[in-house]
């Protein structure tokens, strides 16, 4: 988990990861804390994890991005290394208004990492570049 998250958020994600490694049990014991720290993003993020909507995309060189199939059916690209998502909610509530730590898509990435629930997709360097550039073309 990237150090841009507050320590309390990082600690909670570490606890979830440890609990899943030891017992593989659900997030029920953590749901109150998730809602307290991450606000309205918590429940939709858990839904995305339950639906296995998070895919870790890896190239042969080791470059990694995450793709999250949003509840609207749109595919968003997330970068956990720099704490960024291409969704409109991230731009508005996280960057512009500073109302939230992160959007539901990035939280789903962090939770799926902690719970070992990421799907894996290995792509060529060219395919990963196309994924990354497709986001820029959508915006431009």
Explain how this protein is built:
InterPro entries: Znf_SWIM (IPR007527). One of its GO terms (cellular component) is Shu complex. One of its GO terms (biological process) is double-strand break repair via homologous recombination. The protein has 140 residues and is an alpha+beta fold. It has 6 helices and 5 strands, in the order H-H-H-E-E-E-E-H-H-E-H. Strands 4-3-2-1-5 form a 5-stranded mixed sheet. It is globular.
Oligomer: single chain
Distance between the termini: 30 Å
Strand coverage percent:
15-25%
- How many beta strands in the DSSP annotation? 5
What fraction, in percent, of the residue positions are helical?
40-55%
The figure for the number of domains is: 1
Taking pLDDT < 50 over at least 5 consecutive residues as the criterion, the unreliable ranges are none
Arithmetic mean of pLDDT: 85
Main sheet makeup: 5 strands, mixed
Listing every helix as H and every strand as E from the N terminus to the C terminus, the arrangement reads: HHHEEEEHHEH
Give a topology summary:
Elements: H1 7-23, H2 31-38, H3 42-50, E1 54-58, E2 64-69, E3 75-79, E4 84-85, H4 88-96, H5 104-115, E5 119-122, H6 125-139
Parallel strand pairs: 1-5
Antiparallel strand pairs: 1-2, 2-3, 3-4
Helix pairs in contact: 1-5, 3-5
State the main characteristics.
140 residues; Znf_SWIM; 5 strands; alpha+beta; 16% strand; globular
Structure described in brief:
Helix content is 50%, strand content 16%. The protein has helices spanning 7-23, 31-38, 42-50, 88-96, 104-115, 125-139, and strands spanning 54-58, 64-69, 75-79, 84-85, 119-122. Helix 1 (7-23) packs parallel to helix 5 (104-115) and helix 3 packs across helix 5 (104-115).
